[in-house]
Amino acid sequence: MIFQAHKGVSCENPENTMPAFAAAAQQGYKIIELDVAVTKDLKFVLIHDSTINRTARCKNGKLIAKAIKISDITYCEALEYDFGIWFSKKFKGTKIPLFEEVLKFARENSLKLKIDNKYQNFTIEQRKAFFEILSPYQDVACLTCSSVEEIKSAVDTFPQMHFHYDGLVTVENLEKLSTILPKERLTVWLPHKNPNTSWVKVEFASEKLSDLVKKHASLGIWILSNISQLDEAKKLGADVIETNGQLKPNLNKTMEFIFLQKDGSEHLHF
């Protein structure tokens, strides 16, 4: 089973930042999920929200007074804000990372990057520029698509890329995907029913749905945070699981014991 770090090891580091990605590499995660956005001057950066306010602060650590969209400021202007101190003072001075910087980091550390489907909202000009950056990194970058049509349109551009699908899972859609991509180049994601996924509008992972997916693709299950959820994902045959970092790839018994005892809701079993 492969472990994927959601926005990096985001339970211990500010999300979508180099510290979170470095932690993922150090802790043995094989895939990092991340969110790409574009600035006013067509620079691709990593941030989840359309505004910077939740995950950025002024240099003095104070809240940013007005809502600022990342698309309304240049990359240089974005560098004027601190993207670490909101999480912890020890991350003071953390800058918003450039996507190209993270692509190089991933290749150097033998990591895969699962790019969230937000790129689907880019303009034609933005998408063209984004795809030009991606093209030399098909061994590293993987696009997440929310529709069969989106995958179909991207496959010709990226003939060597692995794709992720997080759209509606039906027999019809899976059969269509099978005609577009071989099984080894496709991961289909199902949400695990828990507080982290309470907002989703697609069907939750079940034995029936998981078996259906595995006929056509690798099975990914998100987002998990404890051992009991991991056990459920294993029983469903998950090939990949996504976590904010509470679950570690190389399950060190001491680390896991400390985490679970602090949480107080689970017990260890190996």
Portion in strands:
15-25%
CATH topology: TIM Barrel
Distance between the termini: 15 Å
Please give the radius of gyration in angstroms. 19 Å
Give an account of the 3D structure.
It is built from nine helices and ten strands. With 270 residues, it is an alpha/beta fold. It has one domain: TIM Barrel, CATH 3.20.20. The strands form two sheets. The protein has an eight-stranded parallel β-barrel with strand order 1-2-5-6-7-8-9-10, surrounded by four helices. It has a two-stranded antiparallel sheet with strand order 3-4. Helix 5 packs parallel to helix 6 (171-180). The radius of gyration is 19 Å and the shape is globular. 39% of the residues are buried.
How would you describe this structure in keywords?
single chain; 270 residues; alpha/beta; TIM Barrel; two-stranded antiparallel sheet; 10 strands; globular; disordered C terminus
Brief summary:
By secondary structure, this protein is an alpha/beta fold.
Present the secondary structure layout.
Blueprint: E1 2-6, H1 18-27, E2 31-34, E3 36-38, E4 44-46, H2 75-78, H3 99-108, E5 112-115, H4 124-134, E6 141-145, H5 148-155, E7 163-165, H6 171-180, E8 186-191, H7 207-214, E9 218-224, H8 227-235, E10 240-243, H9 253-263
Parallel strand pairs: 1-2, 1-10, 2-5, 5-6, 6-7, 7-8, 8-9, 9-10
Antiparallel strand pairs: 3-4
Helix pairs in contact: 5-6
